[in-house]
Design brief:
Number of strands: 12
Number of helices: 7
CATH architecture: Alpha-Beta Complex
Shape: globular
Largest sheet: 8 strands, mixed
CATH superfamily: Spore Coat Polysaccharide Biosynthesis Protein SpsA, Chain A
CATH topology: Spore Coat Polysaccharide Biosynthesis Protein SpsA, Chain A
Distance between the termini: 46 Å
Order of helices and strands: EEEHEHEHEHEEEEEHHEH
Length: about 240
């Protein structure tokens, strides 16, 4: 007889959108070496080590390049039965949608994590998942510490106003929500998918609640070669 529902450990599936063109980095940053291993492998391992992750789907245009880099790193992650790959889309939201359709219907919770955030901590994943279960959807966030000016681009441009920053927050990942809510968000999205820059934005657009939890400065997203150097320094600091 199966255990009562209250005794079943909550679990979630993971989507890693990994189909970006890395225009600011100049090459495929996910196969760049970080502490001797590909960036993507660090991101994967943060979740493959968890017992509450049931499925992992990586959406990518570069399966062969990713496969070869991870195999060259002597990693066994490809034998993890939870791991699957699917084609990426023309934009982030489309890649997430492709991966979402690969998940079985019994999956209740979905986490979407930037493939280029290799230093995400177990504590941040756990805290975000707990908040999602309590509120329906949760995202780690950091306060915006810089002064923000609104002005039409490109620069040079005349300042329109200074945006008060005391209620501004910079989003991180993983962003965790119910699979059914994310599907509904895609079905009812009033915007072209290329204008959706944040996963939980799909929930916001259809009136679903999204809650923020405290983010982590170490959970940086690798966008430029300098970010990769900073990540390397952060890893060395852990030794």
């Amino acid at each position: 007889m199966p255990p009562p529902a209250s005794h079943i450990m909550p679990s979630f599936a993971l989507i890693l959108p990994a189909a970006g063109n890395a225009s600011r980095f100049g090459r495929n940053k996910l196969v760049e070496t970080l502490n001797g291993k590909p960036v993507l492998l660090h991101s994967l391992r943060a979740f493959t080590r968890r017992d509450d992750v049931t499925h992992i789907v990586v959406a990518t245009h570069c399966f062969s390049e990713v496969h070869d880099a991870i195999v060259a790193a002597a990693s066994s992650v490809f034998v993890d039965p939870r791991l699957n790959f699917c084609p990426g889309g023309a934009c982030r939201a489309e890649s997430v949608f492709h991966a979402l359709r690969e998940l079985p219907s019994e999956v209740e919770w979905v986490a979407v994590h930037d493939a280029a955030r290799p230093l995400v901590s177990q504590e941040l994943i756990t805290d975000t998942f707990a908040a999602a279960q309590e509120h329906g959807a949760a995202v780690p966030a950091l306060p915006v510490n810089l002064t923000i000016k609104q002005a039409p681009g490109p620069l040079p441009s005349k300042v329109a106003c200074t945006v008060p920053r005391h209620e501004l927050w910079a989003m991180q990942t993983p962003q965790i929500m119910r699979r059914s809510d994310l599907l509904e968000g895609f079905e009812r999205c009033p915007l072209p998918l290329e204008q959706v820059t944040d996963d939980v934005q799909l929930l916001e657009l259809i009136g679903k609640e999204v809650w923020l939890v405290a983010g982590d400065d170490r959970n940086l997203k690798i966008t430029t070669p300098l970010d990769l150097q900073i990540a390397e320094l952060l890893i060395r600091g852990q030794r």
